[in-house]
Amino acid sequence: MPRVRRLLKELTNAHGPTGFEGPVRAIMRRELSPLVSDMKTDGVGSLIAHLVGSAESPRVMLSAHMDELGMLVKYITPEGFVKFQTLGGWLDQGIINQRYVILTRKGTVQGVTGLKTPHVMSAEDRAKAMKRDHMFIDVGATSSDDAKGRLGIRPGDPIAPDSTFVQLNGGKLYMGKAFDDRVGLAAMIEVIRSLNERRPPNSTFAVATVQEEIGLRGAQTSSYQVRPDIGINLEAGVAADYPGISSDEAQERLGDGPGIFLHDASMLPNLKLRDFVVEVAQARGIPVQFEVLSGYGEDGAEVQRSHEGVPSINITVPVRYLHNHNGVMNREDFNGAVELVSEVIRRMDAKTVADLRSFD
Ligand SMILES: [Zn+2]
Fold first, then answer.
1. pTM, whole model, 2 decimals?
2. 242-250 long-range contacts, CB within 8 A, separation 24+
3. CB atoms within 10 A of CB 172
4. Per-domain residue ranges for the chain?
5. Which of the following is catalytic: 31, 190, 212, 343?
6. Which residues have CB less than 5 Å away from ligand 1 (the ion)?
């Protein structure tokens, strides 16, 4: 399997629910370590890799988050069913009747969020969506003692969606879980690989953050450690090119290139930086698209308001069906994002960044 597809497969298949990003961090460490001069972590687990360019400054922070939507074990019923606390923005109907893995001290435990059969439901009940408070994970245990003893499940154990990566029917589309934001991490690795071959006139920090899905926490701590002059966040964009979703809700389409956020609930990009990115895209013949969302939230917002303020932008690879067990992305959009971000960083010398940071 070619390198990038293999990387996306490994990153998306890895289990890293919010707060439990260890398996993803291990992949990031392995991939980035041959490409950068040093790596460290912040106090909550974000990985900060430093690529030394031909100049020590300006400092460019490239970020993407390692965590995916998940859960943790709340308690086990006397009958051996697992009740859970959700982590991140789940939809109730996205949780139910799906496969999960619980990461225990004894290894991986498989289970399913059981859903009552329609055979026994009234017409009224069939029309209702089940609420998460009534859900549980069936791990095949015979009792609470069996779940704790034989399977090793303890309160606080992380739970991740169980869904595997596939190339969708041989085409350019890939299907899998956690493209939000493993697609950003894979792009970050490829950008650093490209920058390692042709060094930029700056210091670039590739930061794989933790705990984005519950409030951008790792981006806050890591941006304080990095002290960037410019922030570029890589995220999964909201594709709106399938039945039942409208351009009023989101505007990105698979295959139309990387996206640039112009508004989301967490931040506005720096417009000079937007124009700079668009100019680079045009010069390189890379198609780009724009996204204006009323909701959402991303790590760029924390980078932007760290220290005395940092011109920042959020660049995306569009993904369908985010925050569910299966998303769909287009490989061409990924390639465009890697090339665009690599070229943008390669042009970020002291003069360019001083101009981007000037409000005169
Ligand atoms: Zn995300």
1. 0.96
2. 242/320, 249/293, 250/291, 250/293
3. 15
4. 3-68+177-356, 70-161
5. 212
6. 180-181
